[in-house]
Amino acid sequence: METILYIAHTESNGSLSKASMETLTAASDLAKKLAGATFVAGLIGENVQSAVNAVSNCGASKFYAVEGADFGSSRYASDVAALEILIRTANATIVLASSTSRFCRAMPGVAYRLKGLIDTHVSGFETGSGKLEIQRWYYRQRMVASMSRTQRPWLLLVDSGIYPAFQAQTGSATLQKIDMKLDESKKKTKVVGLQAPQTTAQTIRPDAALLFVAGAGWTKKQADGQIHIKDAERIILDFLNSSNASLGSSKSLVDQGSEGEEVLPFLSHLNQVGQTGSTPRHPKGLAACCHGEEPHTVGWRFINERRAVNLDPNCGWAQGKADVLYVADAFQVMTKVTELLTKK
Ligand SMILES: Cc1cc2nc3c(=O)[nH]c(=O)nc-3n(C[C@H](O)[C@H](O)[C@H](O)COP(=O)(O)OP(=O)(O)OC[C@H]3O[C@@H](n4cnc5c(N)ncnc54)[C@H](O)[C@@H]3O)c2cc1C
């Protein structure tokens, strides 16, 4: 019989992230579907009691914790030690954790120490055959595989944006604290502060309801024979600020900077969506001044509703890549959309 251990780390304010709450939904569903499975939870953080209370209704029969100032921030050595002891204490055979940067870094080392196996970017679970099968995408999200393993413990890092966040109902839960003394060799790395970009520069917003993709057309000569980079910059930023959309880009647009052409200063290769870029998950997507070629639109695999604005009625979006194509000037359309949004 399997013992499913859900593991999460607290954020700096002591809560659990949206991604962790999504993985909790997955873990709690899986525990109900996998016959005879035991479901337990484990938390890591400086002070985890309020986070545990918030998820006390998740169905876990025990809540383990590795707690203290040494576990407040991400650090490979202390995280690996804490995760290892949590999994050993719980006698877990299946471990579910979300793909946070903290766990992505530490969990593979934990699997090695436990002589277990790890699978990352897990996007689904099946239990129809009576045993656990996971789903995972390959080849830039073009092929999906279902697979199972016999080796235990089996550590699974679950991607965000797949499951709804667990609906917390604050209650109270008894913590089983694991007493852990870290030796000095595991504390050599110290977090001395956080540096984050200004909010206006932070254009990648994984939790946004809308992905707005800018294409190279924004930097091309327009009907008057001129390029209008400054206008493009203002129109795009105004729209992002009024809609809170996440900003994606085509490869052509972000490549222009390295080719010495005039570019939009807030875009980098991190914004690139597509075969050699990212495959973000958002309920809706809107592309403007982007042609919609296959190497780009393959990155839209997980965007549920797709719309595009392009002057060209024969662009790629019109060839079955978008649900709606507006054949129009994106400079005018996006200015009008922002005007309507800010009027509300
Ligand atoms: C191996 C490989 C991997 C690749 N990986 C990626 C990837 O990860 N991501 C990616 O994006 N691409 C990728 N590409 C490149 C991809 O094939 C396209 O070249 C790229 O997506 C084109 O970018 P674009 O649509 O922004 O530019 P363009 O093709 O130049 O299109 C610009 C569009 O803007 C429109 N336009 C211009 N002015 C306006 C206006 N005022 N209003 C409305 N529309 C206007 C034009 O009609 C045109 O359709 C890859 C290619 C290869 C070979």
From TrEMBL:
Key words of the record: Electron transport, Transport
Pfam families: ETF
Single GO MF annotation: electron transfer activity
Domain Electron transfer flavoprotein alpha/beta-subunit N-terminal, chain residue ranges per copy: 4-191
Keyword Transmembrane helix listed: no
Keyword Transferase: no
GO BP annotation list: fatty acid beta-oxidation using acyl-CoA dehydrogenase
Superkingdom: Bacteria
PANTHER family: ELECTRON TRANSFER FLAVOPROTEIN ALPHA (PTHR43153), ELECTRON TRANSFER FLAVOPROTEIN SUBUNIT ALPHA, MITOCHONDRIAL (PTHR43153:SF1)
Family, as annotated: Belongs to the ETF alpha-subunit/FixB family.
UniProt name for this protein: Electron transfer flavoprotein subunit alpha
